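Exercise 7 asks you to align residues with tokens for two separate proteins.
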Amino acid sequence: SSRHWGPIYVKLKDNKYLQLFYEKGLEKPFKEFNLEINHEISEPKLQNYDENGRIHSVRIDRVTYKEKKKYQPKPAVSHIAEKEQVIKLGTTNYDDFLSFIRAVQYSLMDLPASSTDLSTVGLNYQEEEITVDVKDEFYGILAKGDNRIVQHNVLTR
């Protein structure tokens, strides 16, 4: 696989999978993959692109949790996230970048939990653990004059 940035066109189809095209307007993608409930979108980054500037990049990772035992100072068990990069995408257009991140986040939130075989989840865990990190984001449009909320969207991750 190559490790350089190249131009592609990305399409989110049916809020379930990404299609990658070599250029806009083609009918057949060169690659596509389903979004899964164990996928996570990384924090946005700004990277060197070429001699002319920088590029906004984001990864979609497959996240699994592995149980690790610790013995000092007393025996304990923790569940560590292991991330495998599925794809990394970038653009110099910041508005497109934000739009893509929001679209993928909403799609991941709308995936049914039953799409994973729950009988295989946690089979090798000796101790159960739940960790919750919550981040709320609010997007709203206010009416001029009386400041009523005309349209809103709330994202909790």
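Second protein for Exercise 7:
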Amino acid sequence: MSPSADTPVRSSHQLLAFGKYYQLPPVTRILITSLCIAIRIAPNEVSIASPEAARLILSAGKRFYKTAFYAAHNSVNLGTWLHYFAFDVLGEVAFSRSFGFLAEGKDLEGAIATIDRSQAYNGIVGQVPWVDHLLRRNPLWKLVPTFDTKNAPITRIALSEMERRKPFDKESEGKLRNDDGRQDLLASLIKGHLKTPEKFTEGDVFAIVHGAIFAGSDSTASTMQSLFWHVLSSPQVHARLVTEIVNAAKAGVLPVTGNISWKEAQQLPYFQACLKEAMRVRPAVGLNITRVVPPEGAEFDGYLIPGGTQVAVNGWVLHRDKRIFGQDADDYRPERWLVDVQEAKRMERYMFQVSTGT
């Protein structure tokens, strides 16, 4: 390397044009380039005048990767966009309309952030329920607008959507008037309310549709994030899944364009295996869902548990049990679901990704 390569340069890479080398006249720069093979033009950049270097540095596959100079786009958090997608899809399912998260590219009204805060509260206070009466269920809590749960975005959305369907009558059966008449979740719930209003009240309708968005968006997003992460992290899994989808489209099993129905998706065994495995290694619910042992007590694996004791099975622990899922239970391997039909059914009985019977 030329002796000048070790000469300190005052300029930074961002102020390259003001470096000493670039302050020289063009003829002088040409002479220097002709006489020197390599010249340091910035603290961490060397300009090389060599045919061999050109062939090596600029050829593909030589592991001389492009610098930040070539970065045309910023990286994005795919998990965040999958969360937006989950919200918009559930909006279509529940209310026949998208919430607009994808279109706006942001957490509208802080709905996701509100759910995150509420889930953190539920996870902690849920272990000591009596504390809830001192906090969220305390009448004084409602005096603070930001604390009142009625002001939460999902609550307001659910209430406003119910108002849009009123009056509830058998003519509309809960469907939006002057619309395409789609049978969405809210319409189905209102229809059930009209049949037995004394047993299935408006409050019940609200509770279910609110829960579908509140809990459904989080668990759906979590499952999609797990699926994308594990599939994209394994070239072999990704290649096999893409091949299955492409072949299914060519065979007419899947539509080339448009949405894919649940029934059509069932025709993709490897995709279903990938989905089950994503829910197994990263179940959406990580909390213990507790139950109370009956008065007579219960016995589990030789352990006697007295009546009245709270017990729970944690999905994250159960899904990694090697007695159930094999010695590679810690690994993401969709093929485990395709080896034997009876074995797959046996493993299915121990899938608690969102608990069971909650």
